[in-house]
Amino acid sequence: MRIILDPQRRDDLLEVVKVGDTLVVNGEPFDFSPIGEGDTLPGSAISSAWLSGDVDRINGQLVIRMWLPNP
Prior knowledge:
Elements: E1 2-8, E2 16-19, E3 22-25, E4 28-31, E5 40-41, E6 51-58, E7 61-69
Parallel strand pairs: 1-7
Antiparallel strand pairs: 2-3, 3-4, 5-6, 6-7
């Protein structure tokens, strides 16, 4: 899994735990295991204020963009 962090000015706290193809973001799990090779899950289909774009699986690896709070 490759997580690309996009800095954003905000004072929130962020806690991320990776378990296989699941990310637990501030206690809320997001299971990306159904995403197949070459598939894209549009960011608009994900109900999270922390994910900042689409989720892709490229060469077997999930590519996820997330906001990184920067106070």
